[in-house]
Sequence to fold (252 residues):
Amino acid sequence: MKKQPPLIIGNWKMNPRDSKSAVSLVKELGTLQKKQNHATVVIAPPIIYLAEVSKLAKKYNLSLAVQNIHKSLLGAFTGEHSLPMVLEYGVKYVILGHSERRASGESDADITGKIEATLKAKCQPIVCIGEKERDGQGNFFLLIEEQIKNIFTNIPKARFKDIILAYEPIWAIGTGATATVEDVVEMQIFIQKTIAKYFGRASVAPVRIIYGGSVKPDNAKELFESKVIDGFLVGGASLNAGDFNSIINATK
Ligand code: PGA
Fold:
């Protein structure tokens, strides 16, 4: 299977404070990134900024993601957005199962429905998995195994290549604590073993695995040089164009 370019996603979460700041952030990043073509750079702004941001994204060769989606195409779902609504703005990726959403009640079953809808719309789901904490006995591996099993069970194997798994240990999100390279390597091997166990060896290679959790300019290079990850999901540091640019450049 041909090696794909690194995938670096900036999850803006509920930031920045207004559309003017969102536009400035894209322009700043776009200008810094103008000459790079080694990576696929994706930004996930709040949906309310999509119309403005999408005009610039094209110009700067940035791809777009949303941070969540509803699985239905249309209907009485107050406060929700559908895939056709965001496809209009060129969205190609959907972040699903982020721990901040799981924490407010999103279940594996909800996430599975959204993955299926995303694939049907020819978008790529970026599915977050990760443990809240690590216990000395290694029980957290069981939770990761369960999450992986639930994600892939209803997905046709031919579509595994469209799934991006983001390993994000919850204890490392927004805390400044990053998993060590050893933690990431160990988990990446475990994820691949789990996919092989339930879905066969041939299913391992097509699934891209990225890392998220306090990725910063000063740890990105070391993490990426572990050679086991295909990119990063970046929260806080993606709100600073200079920092995000450094992280992208660390994957050269
Ligand atoms: P962080 O967030 O980079 O601020 O830790 C990562 C994420 O939540 O995806």
Summary: The pocket of 2-phosphoglycolic acid is lined by residues 11, 168, 173-174, 212-215, 233-237 (CB under 6 Å). The beta strands are 7-11, 40-44, 63-66, 91-96, 124-129, 164-167, 208-212, 231-234. The first strand starts at residue 7 and ends at 11. The chain has a mean pLDDT of 95.
